[in-house]
Design goal:
- 2 copies of one chain form a homodimer.
- By secondary structure, the first copy, chain A, is an alpha/beta fold.
- Helix content of chain A is 37%, strand content 22%.
- Chain A contains 9 helices and 13 strands.
- In chain A, strands 3-2-1-4-8 form a 5-stranded mixed β-sheet. The first copy, chain A, has a 5-stranded mixed β-sheet with strand order 11-10-9-12-13, sandwiched between helices. In chain A, strands 5-6-7 form a 3-stranded antiparallel β-sheet.
- In chain A, helix 6 (191-199) crosses helix 7 (203-224).
Chain lengths: 288, 288
């Protein structure tokens, strides 16, 4: 079995060629207006189509049953990606999923054996993906796992890209951390710099990173009594703060958690980095 | 096909005899210390065991794969209810589920055709149940859909029965409504009285019912970007306030909602009342 997993982003498209166990080869091409051509080129560079058993594709937009809704930074929007690519490639076994959900699926299958998992991606925004019994929770209109838009904050009311205020993204993303730090120091620093400062014991940075972790713990608490996953997987750029961040989140989670038996809730750091979406695209086919 | 659905509560046990379409007969017996005997008696009154194809059972405790965890008001706790009853009755086809999840399953199948639903039960506490593609989201440790314990409030900090403060239950249940009204009027009224007052235009009651609906809308917003259900079903004693309450919830939901396409989120009132759990127990077998 050979599968190509394709992770389409606004800037680049990642291609991974897998056999039934491992990544054999990968490739990254810039995203252009003629996205279909980019995809054909990437596939052809890695393998003849005739040797593939399936192609998994992720897109940076909500999806439902292979249909993608509006994408902000892509030439494609509101289309059935599976139908489009099947016709263009003359190839049937294609599956399509939102990128954050695919990243969750990648980490879920790669990281161990779990009955369920919630992945929380802390980057420029906050993404998420919910996996139950190996299945992605896409939701009725593709908004399953869009946890960055939980109305989490009513104290700072920073503005969110989605037009609302107070979304998880405004306080729990890398941008959120910068927002919070600026609020208490009047200074603008990058997320990494703030964590580095906190690790040296800087008072404001310590306060802000605790506050930041408390917001993440808060929406993990919500998820623990809604989805009740076996494990939370913390990924995205901010997760490079590593065990320091993970310990803060766990500490705060135990403090606010409603049920004693959830005090042992498992949390782990993501392992696949920027390849998670590509792996997820692969597992879409592999575990079909 | 004949099925008995049994809804076990702390005060009474409800039994419903169903064929493959409708409720034929029902019965309610008081809950006693010898719960197994109560169940045998109820079943025998409605039908000979030999004529049954299955028995569905709900319990007032978190469940996972027919195992029930701790129950506060029941002689049974921490046991595999399916195994116990199979042995006691000499009958195999038994399925067991948490009562709030079962109520959700009952309303989901009874109320129409939906791909997914979240039921919100507003009673003495706040219960919930999440159904996706006909399957109940039980969660890793049975806490799926325990939405009454979302940490919703950090303003009033009323105490919750679970030992935490600020749970949804403390502001969004009938008790929560009474808490809020007392906070603004120093008077103690029942939930129904507060809604009746609000409908006459009483200033404090109007303010408090709006605030109350805003809390419900807030956790529905969380659920809309986590589970993204096709429909929210609002049940429990407080839902007798009817369209008045539903309109307030919808209005507030649209105000805080992050995604334009969720402005048309469907909400409906529950239809089965106190029989919802019994129906859910039935559907556990029927749609197995």
């Amino acid at each position: 079995m050979r599968v190509i997993g394709i992770d389409i982003g606004g800037t680049s498209v990642k291609f991974g060629l897998f056999d039934d166990k491992t990544l054999l080869d990968k490739l990254e091409l810039p995203t252009t207006k003629d996205l279909t051509e980019v995809i054909k080129k990437g596939i052809n560079t890695l393998s003849p189509l005739s040797e593939l058993s399936g192609i998994g594709v992720t897109v940076p937009a909500p999806t439902k049953d292979n249909y993608m809704f509006h994408a902000a930074n892509l030439p494609w929007s509101n289309m059935n990606v599976k139908e489009h690519l099947s016709k263009e490639l003359g190839f049937d076994n294609i599956e399509v999923l939102n990128d954050a959900n695919a990243a969750a699926l990648g980490e879920y299958h790669f990281g161990g054996v779990f009955d369920s998992a919630v992945m929380v991606t802390l980057g420029t925004g906050v993404g998420g993906g919910i996996i139950v019994d190996g299945k992605v929770l896409e939701g009725h209109g593709g908004f399953g796992g869009e946890i960055g838009h939980i109305q989490l904050d009513d104290k700072y009311n920073f503005e969110c890209g989605c037009t609302a205020t107070g979304c998880a993204e405004t306080v729990a993303s890398a941008t959120g951390l910068k927002n919070l730090y600026k609020n208490y120091s009047q200074k603008e620093l990058e997320a990494k710099e703030i964590f580095d400062l906190a690790k040296t014991g800087d008072e404001v940075a310590v306060k802000v990173t605790h506050l930041y972790a408390a917001y993440i713990a808060k929406f993990c608490q919500f998820l623990s009594v809604i989805v009740n996953p076996e494990i939370f997987i913390i990924g995205g750029g901010v997760s490079k703060a590593g065990e320091y961040l993970l310990d803060l989140i766990k500490e705060e989670f135990v403090r606010i958690n409603a049920f004693k038996s959830l005090d042992n809730q498992e949390f782990k750091l993501a392992e696949l980095g920027n390849d998670a979406g590509m792996y997820g695209a692969y597992y879409l086919i592999k575990n079909k």
